Amino acid sequence: VLSCIMKKYETVNMLIMGIMDMPSELEEFGDRIHRVEFMDYRKLPEWIASVDINLAPLNDTIFNRAKSENKWTEAALVHVVTVASRLGAFQEKIRDGIDGILCGSQQEWFERLCDLVEHPVKRAEIADNAYQRCRRECVTLMNSTNLCEWVKEHMTRCCGFILPAL
Prior knowledge:
Layout: H1 2-8, E1 14-17, E2 33-36, H2 44-49, E3 53-56, H3 62-65, H4 70-76, E4 81-85, H5 88-93, E5 101-103, H6 106-118, H7 120-137, H8 140-154
Parallel strand pairs: 1-2, 3-4, 4-5
Helix pairs in contact: 4-7
């Protein structure tokens, strides 16, 4: 799908963050593919904000179904739209077409990415919806009271004794 997108749109570049083996289908686009190694987490928001579309493709495995939606959250907080696989936490969290894009097939990935490449206003609207939702629902400041109440409700009193050697 990425090869088809890059053939169709000569202005599309790709930024790979972290370690990834380059698929042979993408080798012809080497001058349009940029790599950034693992970095200090404090620099991550700036790099994510430098792209227009955040991709989160996952194979449908038990391991991937257990992954969190952090990649969506990180992108949302810097006003970047995420296109993710329709599974696990992405499927539970993202409202498709409203604050992110979900895809389940290669055809869907191609069509939805083309739509976002061709419609920057739509991209910005979805990214802003994600940002607003994250500010309301996903930051500690807005959730600390609920978290404290949950801990109090589920906490059981435990007593422990530590005895030094006699």
